[in-house]
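Readers of this paper often ask what the protein records in our data store actually look like. Such a record has a labelled line for the sequence and another for the backbone structure tokens. Nothing more is needed to write down the fold, since each code stands for a local backbone conformation. The record that follows is passed on verbatim for readers who wish to inspect the format.
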Amino acid sequence: RNRKHFVMAVTCATSRARAGVWREASARRRERKVGRVHCVAKQVERVDFVPYDASDASWTSGSFDEERRTFAQRFRLRSYEVDGERMASIITLANMLQEVATNHVLGLWGKGKDGFPVPPEMVERNLGWVMARMKFQLDRYPTWGDLIEVRTWFCAAGKLAARRDWDLVDIVTGERIGGCTSMWVCLDMAKRRMSRIPPGVRQEFEKSSPVDEVFALGQGVIPLKLPDFDDEPEFIGPTVVARRTDIDMNGHVNNVAYIGWALEALPLSESEQFNLKEVEIEFKNEALQGERVVTMASPSPCAVPAHPNDGKDYTSHCYLHSLSREADGEELVLLRSHWCPK
């Protein structure tokens, strides 16, 4: 009984103390007459961030250009999207690309009968799009509070595939953050095999693509097939279990999750001393919830860009990564990462 009374007394005292603190804090807020938006602006100013107007919805919404051939969306880089150095991770930026691409086609065609934003003719034929390859280059990493605009567009690439590109720009400075290009194949969802793009869809593409062919990473640059992975890896990373939170709307592991898994195979010293400047990905098979995925990596040759002769070490590191299903050894994803000194 005494123990019970003691706990109750402590609880009441704690509650009274908390109430007093809350009353004092509320009084101070009223005296300063500081609203939530002003608090954000004050914090932003202290660390040289640019405050935004919370009444302006454009900082989270997307929009088309006048001819509806490109789509752009703005993102404020939030605290939970950065690392210990206040820089965005490759996962954060890849998620932005995915979000903008989805909202782009959602704005063009809306949701189909199955809930996916694809042209009506593709819905009738039970066809869908699957990303086959991607190449993502970064000029610099944005930091906490930066306002980023991601612009995207697509075009047909032959009879079976389409190409989608993205540009990332710092809204305040106008500085380019990076760019990405990807190839998508038209898939028969029932047979799980590639299919020709229907003529009506190709016509839709012509109306919704830039008049002149535009490449985000330079004229003619597209993601290419990666070399086969060595059977004897130098690094073996953790075996990953596909969780519920890794599954996307298609019922398999989200494409972005594979990037994080692949990079876990490298030693920590790599990310401590180097910045990831480029990733190339080739998607081969899908992973489902509960499946165990083995992560491996080995050094890979890479081009060394020209640098000034200032005595600094500009040595680049490249690695080839492989993700495979533990149960049957089936390779799921190939990825090549390119790292440059910080």
Q: What stands out?
A: Residues 2-32 form the longest helix (31 residues). The radius of gyration is 24 Å. Helices lie at 2-32, 36-46, 90-109, 120-124, 199-208, 255-263, 268-273.
